[in-house]
Amino acid sequence: MEIMTPKRLRMTIKTIRAIIFISIILGLFLSTIIVSILLYAKAQGPPSLSVPQSTVVFAGDGSILGETHHGQKRFWVDLHDISPHVLNATIAIEDKSFYEHHGFDYKRIVGAAIADLKAMAKVQGASTITQQYARNLFLEHDKTWKRKIQEALYTIRLEMSYSKEDILEGYLNTIYYGHGAYGIEAASDYYFGKEAKDLTLSEASLLAAIPKGPSFYSPKIHLENAKSRQKLILNEMVQHGYLSKKAAAAAYEEPLSIKDSSSKENVKMAAAPYFYDAVLQDATKKLNVTEQEMETLGLRIHTTIDPKLQELAENRVKQTISDKSEIQASFVAADPKTGYIKALVGGRNYKESPFNRATQAERQPGSTMKPFLYYAAVKSGMSPSTPMRSEPTTFTFNDGESTYKPSNFNNYYANDSITLAQAIAMSDNVYAVKTHLFLGMQELIDTSKEFGITSKLAKVPSLALGTAPVKLYEMVNAYGILANGGKQIEPTFITKIEDSDGNTLYEHPKEAEQILDNEAAFVTTHLMTGMFDKKLNGYTTVTGQTIADSLTRKYAGKSGTTETDSWMIGYSPQLVAGVWTGYDKGKTIDVVAEKSYAKNIWASFMEEALEDEPAKSFKPPKGVVGIYINPETGKLATKDCPVRHYAYYVAGTEPTEYCTDHLDSDENDSDKGNLKDRKDKEQKWWQRILPWG
């Protein structure tokens, strides 16, 4: 054992004294801070329990579309009027140490910090019920240190001024349960049509799952997500002695009767409810706040919707689809210059199903994917005259390891060459797959992303025929990009958000960047007018033949059909709109009338929406030339051609050879020998009379 010298002993004693002195100073300093905070909190007195302000949503014309309503004052229920299962489930999942801590759970804070550090991301929350209640009551939700400090002080004041029962009661009466239901009483009525005191263990544990993410865990929208979190809550209740494993298992398996009844708040449903929901969700992302915070900030949200077009869209869906049909539908209309959503229908009945099929559902778009493919093709040098054979074809890919054999509608084929102009107008699938493989399958994926499609797209031949599910509102926006000549837009619901004092929190940028090749975009648009042009009929009719006679102006569009989905998307220079019809559970569309709903809704909407607007044509940009061709051969048309179709080309890709398939058989050899002179004369004559731009 080492013997400590007197000198080292004195140094050690001095070090110990210094550590003790510093510790006392730090302790006194921290104690002073803590006491000061407590004295400040005490001096401030009990915090106000005022309820949050309503957020108002305005339509594009300034009228009120809807506003958030809160049931805290009108449906505040005492703690003893809330089912004990609710209390236990809420504490088990939200704040296990609620009755032990004084507003902050320090062990949980440390644990969450460690988890976040390990994941290098925010993966765990550490807020107690008191902190969440403080946040619900606090009227400023900016993500700043100042706000966090103020919230912490609010939490201390709550703990100092109110009992745990008061805090829990206030929390359960102000927390957001989705679909406009604030507080456990409103939620109990909205989801189960009963009072909060009558909730069963199964119902209570399901409701306790919702505040974590009111949209994601809504049993009306995502029942699987809600049931998954309910199972977690029941397990937590078992671990903390609230119930047995047997009772938890029985509660999880208990059938739930989720009602469609209106909340006791008797709130008038917002006009355009699907659009309204989309606006609130979009606002949370733009302001980086929770759904509950966003709805209680007293915001003024200015949106893009046109009430007249919205009413028209809703009427067209309702009047076109038979009441006896169970088929669903969604609809989106937008301004192609800005991306502003002017009308949106997410389903046939919001009360029966608030699931938004326009913004949330991903469905196979069928041939409505082809314009992206043909834009890429035109950009790469193909033209409306490019010929390919339409015949039954088996394609090999993956170095010959895989095969794919597409088929045309009703197995009709030209068994001959057809032009690109005909291929898109008649929606020839073999031509599309050939083009897809010719360009390279990655090209369509990259091009679709340029158009704003965010869904995952598989690198397979069938992608050209729209086998990868996408969202309707993104497809409509993509067509809008073609309509405006290739300028970048995004689906826009909100133009501006203001706080309750009129300060601007967000404003949508108005500048649009050119992202597509302008010439290729225009040529693609003109190719898409072909679906309504009977001159392009060939081995089958153009896909828009059934509605062509009802259209009074020039439109570009594309329809798409799968066994379970029917699409129609199209545009004029002023407006782009898209329709999807189908069954939610993937049931095939077998009724003949149901197969035409999408086209009929689109055509009637566009005609009435633009009825008072001047008819505008798509203006060709510089670098594009227009000529008459024989649509079957793709060559320059002569006076002998029975059909002449006016087509546009990127300069340099237009045909230079005249069609000779229909020359008069009585023409003498000298006339045939002078064909070149004749072509030159005809070309000069056409240049004088044709509508060049």
From TrEMBL:
Keyword Protein transport found: no
Positions of the Penicillin-binding protein transpeptidase domain: 330-577
Domain Glycosyl transferase family: 62-237
Gene3D superfamilies: Biosynthetic peptidoglycan transglycosylase-like (1.10.3810.10), DD-peptidase/beta-lactamase superfamily (3.40.710.10)
One annotated GO biological process: peptidoglycan biosynthetic process
Regions crossing the membrane: 20-41
Span list, region Disordered: 662-682
Assigned keywords, A-Z: Carboxypeptidase, Cell membrane, Cell shape, Cell wall biogenesis/degradation, Glycosyltransferase, Hydrolase, Membrane, Multifunctional enzyme, Peptidoglycan synthesis, Protease, Transferase, Transmembrane, Transmembrane helix
Record localization: Cell membrane
Database matches in InterPro entries: Beta-lactam/transpept-like (IPR012338), Glyco_trans_51 (IPR001264), Glycosyltr_51/Transpeptidase (IPR050396), Lysozyme-like_dom_sf (IPR023346), PBP_transglycosylase (IPR036950), PCN-bd_Tpept (IPR001460)
Main location: membrane
Coiled-coil parts of chain: none
Catalytic activity: Preferential cleavage: (Ac)2-L-Lys-D-Ala-|-D-Ala. Also transpeptidation of peptidyl-alanyl moieties that are N-acyl substituents of D-alanine; [GlcNAc-(1->4)-Mur2Ac(oyl-L-Ala-gamma-D-Glu-L-Lys-D-Ala-D-Ala)](n)-di-trans,octa-cis-undecaprenyl diphosphate + beta-D-GlcNAc-(1->4)-Mur2Ac(oyl-L-Ala-gamma-D-Glu-L-Lys-D-Ala-D-Ala)-di-trans,octa-cis-undecaprenyl diphosphate = [GlcNAc-(1->4)-Mur2Ac(oyl-L-Ala-gamma-D-Glu-L-Lys-D-Ala-D-Ala)](n+1)-di-trans,octa-cis-undecaprenyl diphosphate + di-trans,octa-cis-undecaprenyl diphosphate + H(+)
Short name of one Pfam family: Transgly
GO cellular component, one term: outer membrane-bounded periplasmic space
Any one GO molecular function term: penicillin binding
SUPFAM superfamilies: beta-lactamase/transpeptidase-like (SSF56601), Lysozyme-like (SSF53955)
Family: In the C-terminal section; belongs to the transpeptidase family.
NCBIfam families, per database record: PBP_1a_fam (TIGR02074)
Name the record gives this protein: PBP1A family penicillin-binding protein
